[in-house]
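Deadline looming. Please check this record:
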Amino acid sequence: MYKSGIMLMAVLSCMINFCGCRQECVTKNDSVQIPIILSSTSNRECYDNGTLNVREDGKACILAYWDNNRTYDANSVLVQYDDHSGIWPFYDISAAKTENSEKSTATILLLFHFDGEKHL
């Protein structure tokens, strides 16, 4: 149950992380530190032309990490990103978009359970 809960949290965080939520253009820096359990920083920089650059990174329980760098235009449309996240040894995911290309890669550990019975 504990492993499935971790995987569910990972999937939900990725869904929230990659959703196209509207970003408010405000410059601010946030940091959360709970030794061994969580370390997270967020830096948001709003430029005069309305462009917003958001940089987030962190680690949780030593085994999980994330590092995201995103740029939004003046209309809050995501125009560029470079995102990395993972929970060792379960998955490692990277996704990037620039003006010219999009690329995504993933390594996911699949755990199989097979239970068979044959009556003779």
Remarks:
- The chain has a mean pLDDT of 83.
- The chain has one domain: 23-108.
- The radius of gyration is 18 Å.
